[in-house]
Amino acid sequence: MTGDAWITLGVLIVVVIGLMSSRIGIDVVMAGGLAVLMTLGVVDFDQASAGFASPAVLMIGGLFVVAAGLEHTGAIRFVAAKMLGKPRGVRVAQLRMMAPVALFSGFMSNTTVVAIGLPIVRDWARRLRVSPSALFLPLSFAAMLGGKLTLIGSASNLIIMEEFVEYAEHSETMATSLSPAWMFFGIAAIGLPCSIVGILFITLTARKLIPDRRPVCDLNDDARRYRTEVVVATDSPVIGKTIEQADLRSLPGLFLSEIERGGRILPAVSPDEVLQDGDRLAFVGVLESVIDLRRIKGLELDDQQAQKLPVKVTQRRLVEAVVSSNSPLIDRSVRESRFRTRYNAVIVAVHRQGRQVQGKIGDIELRPGDTLLLETHHNFVQSWRSSDEFFLVSEIEGERPIRHNRAAIALGILATMVVLLTIGIVDRVAAIWICALAMVLSRCVTGTEARRMINWQVLIVVASSLGIAAAMETTGLASHAVDLVNPGADVGLTWVLFLVFVLGTCISQLVTPYAAAVLLFPFTMELAATAQANPIPFVFVLTMGVGAAFINPMGYQTNLMVIGPGGYRFFDFARIGIPLTVLIGIVAAVLAPLVY
Predict the structure, then answer these.
(1) Which of 155, 157, 153 is nearest to 102 (CA)?
(2) Residue 321, in any domain of the structure
(3) Is residue 123 part of a domain?
(4) Which of 70, 85, 464, 528 has the fewest Cβ atoms surrounding its Cβ within 10 A?
C-alpha cells in the first residue's frame, strides 16, 4: 500500500475507536478524521468539501422538515390510531402494530416514527393490559425493517444510492437503467420480502425471546390526579358516537366523571351515552392521559377561554405551576381572579393533593399547593419562575398543541413528494425541498420548528463520512481490503452477497448506519468488480445490511429510544436480534441476484 493508504487506514481505525467509545460526539469524530486527512494532504479541499454539497446531505436535511410537518399536525397519530384498533392477544397486537410502523418508516425517518409511536404504543399497551416490553422492541425493529421499503426510508438508503448514481455515471449501460422510479422503489424488491419475513418471525417468536421487563400497568396508585374539562367542538368527529366508540373510556388512568349538556349535569356516565355538539366533558386522571386527551381531534378547551388567549397556537406551551401560599389566587375562584388576563394563560387542569376537586374549573377556589396545568405562551416559565406567586414553574418538554386542521395538508404534501421522486420531473433535491417549503408555507410546521427539527449532527457525520470514503477510494485502501477478505472465485455469488450483508450489519453495530454505508460502499464496489458481477445486487444487499442493527441496543437510535421505556437489558436485543439478522441476511442474499 502507498503511504497515503496507510495514513487513511490509521485515521479510519482511530475514527472507529472514537465512535465505539461514545465519549466524543460522532460529528466531532468524523469531522476530526476528515480534517486530519486534509491536513496531511491525503484529500484536497474539493474532495473534503464535496460531501457537504452532496445531494444525499441536502435531501436528508429536507426530509427532517417534511417529517416535522407530519409530526406537528398529528397526521401519523390519526392514521395509526385507525390501524391499531383493539386486538385480542399479544401476537395480534404486535402484528397490527408492526405492519403500519413499517409502512410509515418507508416514507419518513424511522427515528421520527418511533418517537411518535412510543407514547401511542405505551398507552395502547395499557388499554390492552399488555406489558409494554412486548411491544417496544418490535416497534424499533419494525421501523428499521420498514426503512428499507423506499429511497427515503432512512439516511443510509439515500447515501448509498447517491454514491451509486455517481458510480454509475461512468457506465453508460448502467446509467440508463437508473430511472427515478427504480431509484425510489428499487430497494423494495428485497426490502418488502425481508420486512414481511422479519415481522412474521418477531410475531411468532417474541413471546419466547422477549421477556416482560415492565409490569402490565405502570400507573402508580398515588399518581397525581388532575381535573380537566373539554368541549365537543361543532365539527368534532366524535359527535354521534358513544363514549365507548370514541375511545374515551380506554385512556389509562382517566375517568369521565360527568357531562354537562344544555345546563344539565349527567353524572355516572354510561359507556353507551351518545356525544352531542357542545357537550362539556369533565375528566379526572393522571397527567399523561390528560395530555393524550388534548390530542384527540374535536375535543377543545372552553372556547371562550382558548380563543381569547392572545397567543398563536404555534407559540403555546404546556406548563405546570404550583400555587404558593403568597399567591393572590388563594381563596378566589379561577374566574374571580381573572387568571387568563393576569397570567396570559388558560388552566387546562387542576390537581389538589389528597382531595377530589369538584365543580367547573372556572368555579374552583384555589388553595396553596394546587398544581395547575396551563396552556400559555413560550416565555411563561422565564417570566414567573422567580415569582413568589408560585412554588414551582416547569414546562412539559416536547408537548405542543396538535394542528389537526393541517393533517390532511401534511399527508397531501407527503404524497406529492413521493410522486415527484417517483416520476422524476424535477431534481430529487428540489422535489424534497419544495415539499419541505410547502410544509412551512402551509403552517404545518413553523420556520422555527423546522430549523429545530433538522438534525445537524447527522448532516455533519454524513458529509464528513463522504470525504473519508473518497480517501479510501483514491488511495486504493478499498482495493486492498477486498484482496484481504475476497472469498475467491469458487464461492458462489449468494455467499459473497451474504458476506457483504454481514460486514454491513457488523460495522453498523459498531459505528452508525450512515457512516457504515459511506465507508463500505467503495469496498463493496471493488468486491463486485473483482467478482465480475453486476454491482446492483451488491448495492442493495449493502443497503439492507447497514440497516440491520438488531443485535446491539447501542447500534441504532430507535433501539436506544426503546431500551429505557421497555426496561430491556443489553442481551435482550441479541436474543431475538441474532436469529433475525441471519434470517434477513439469507433472504436478501438469495433474492438479490434473482430480482435485480
Answers:
(1) 153
(2) yes
(3) no
(4) 85
